[in-house]
Amino acid sequence: MIVRALAIILLLSAPALAQTSYPVTGKWGQSAGDSKGAIDCAGKRVMSFEGNQRTDSGGGVPAYRNRSVTTDGSSQYRVVDEFSNGMMNDAHTSYTLRKLDNDHIEMQLQSGGTLKLQRCK
């Protein structure tokens, strides 16, 4: 009986458990468009998500390592990344990543801005 209760508790709490890889993969370019399919990302700000690493071609910090991803709804995630640069070590930033569809994501940044991205070719 106790084992069964523990199993039910674990199943119910599973969506709230943090993971350490991003919910998207590949390269994504900054785009305000809503066209279907991947876009040509030449000359655009590009973010690349691979495993627990994220790079950003246009931000103030070029590389991040994922600290946690927590599901916050069916296609929305709370993400915490850590980074180091010449001024800070083991700093972190948090944002909400929302999957709009297979080709579009949106990042609601800690600073208050929103970054719209579309899958790159």
* DSSP E strands, number: 8
| Broad shape | globular
CATH architecture title: Beta Barrel
- What value does the average pLDDT take? 87
Rg is 16 Å
- Biggest sheet overview: 8 strands, antiparallel, barrel
Q: Which regions contain 5 or more consecutive residues with pLDDT less than 50?
A: 5-17
| Tally of helical runs | 1
* Coarse structural class: mainly beta
CATH topology: Lipocalin
Helix-strand string: HEEEEEEEE
Give the CATH level 1 class.
Answer: Mainly Beta
Distance between the termini: 53 Å
Strand order, sheet with most strands = 1-2-3-4-5-6-7-8
Which bin fits the share of residues in helices? under 10%
Counting structural domains, the number is 1
**Percent range for β-strand residues:** 35-45%
Topology:
Blueprint: H1 2-13, E1 26-30, E2 46-50, E3 53-56, E4 63-71, E5 76-83, E6 91-101, E7 104-109, E8 114-119
Antiparallel strand pairs: 1-2, 1-8, 2-3, 3-4, 4-5, 5-6, 6-7, 7-8
Provide structural commentary:
The chain has 121 residues and is mainly beta. It has one domain: Lipocalin (Beta Barrel). The protein has one helix at 2-13; strands spanning 26-30, 46-50, 53-56, 63-71, 76-83, 91-101, 104-109, 114-119. Strands 1-2-3-4-5-6-7-8 form an eight-stranded antiparallel beta barrel. A hairpin with a 4-residue loop joins strand 7 and strand 8 (114-119). The longest helix has 12 residues, at 2-13. It starts with a helix and ends with a strand. Mean pLDDT is 87; it is low at 5-17.
Core attributes:
mainly beta, 8-stranded antiparallel β-barrel, 8 strands, single chain, Lipocalin
Quick rundown:
This protein is mainly β. It has one helix at 2-13, and strands at 26-30, 46-50, 53-56, 63-71, 76-83, 91-101, 104-109, 114-119. The longest helix has 12 residues, at 2-13.
